[in-house]
Amino acid sequence: MNRKKTLEICRDLIVPYPEVKIADNTHVLSKEYSALTHKIDQLRDASLPSSVFRTIIEEITELEIIEATRNFKLEEYEVETPICKMVAHRIAGKKMVLAPIMRAGLGMEPAVKRVFPQSRTGHIGLYRDEVTFEPVEYFYKMPKNAEEREIFILDPMLATGGSADSAISKLKSMGCDGRNINFICIIAAPQGVDLLQKKHPEVSLYIGTVDLGLNKNNYIVPGLGDAGDRIFGTK
Question: Any idea what the CATH number is for the domain that residue 41 is in?
């Protein structure tokens, strides 16, 4: 996205917000990977059919989860190849829990499962009250001993940050250490990044790209619309 040119086009839609400084725990991945920018901007096309939209969501998520786990420690083990025995490596002692925020986060889960098929999955059900814009919880279920595991919250969009904040706060209230919580999204607004950095500074954020801002209805600009509707073809 050419920010300057897009800002000229979308300026009248954006609710003003102060510039947000990116914290050390926040990783904006499009700054490092051109392929990620390419994929994210493909998603923005309103004419994409749901099947293609879902596929690109998963492709982006695979790139992001590899980055989010780049510092996991490895342990050695012996394996026999068709040629000889060797000392191989695998991720050591990390028991992962995926926590997609329903509905849209469900579109990201299959990609992570392909990379880490033994990861466990919990679910956090939240919807946005269309009058107050506040998140309302309707479902919560985590695997046993989730507080002892590395948790990855999945949600394609980080707008105001209300849903993400609610999900993180719920996990903390159930005994999870914020240092073991990671939040992965594809597109974020400055408002959401600012909120999570202030309220949960120990949580690692992995963000595809940060867009220009929010409109008066708290949708990300330029964004891609309602990710849940586009993933499941409900609108």
Answer: 3.40.50.2020
37, 121, 128, 177: the active-site residue: 128
Nearest to 198 by CA among 165, 150, 152, 154: 165
Instruction: Report the SS3 class of residue 3.
Output: helix
Is 226 an active-site residue? Answer: yes
- Please choose, from the candidates 233, 214, 234, 232, the residue with its C-alpha nearest in 3D space to the C-alpha of residue 104: 232
Type and span of the H or E element at 150: strand 150-154
165 as an active site residue: the answer is: no
pTM above 0.70, yes or no: yes
pLDDT digits (tens, 9 = 90+) for 33-61: 999 999 999 999 999 999 999 999 999 99
Q: Is 191 among the domain residues?
A: yes
Clarify whether 121 is annotated catalytic: no
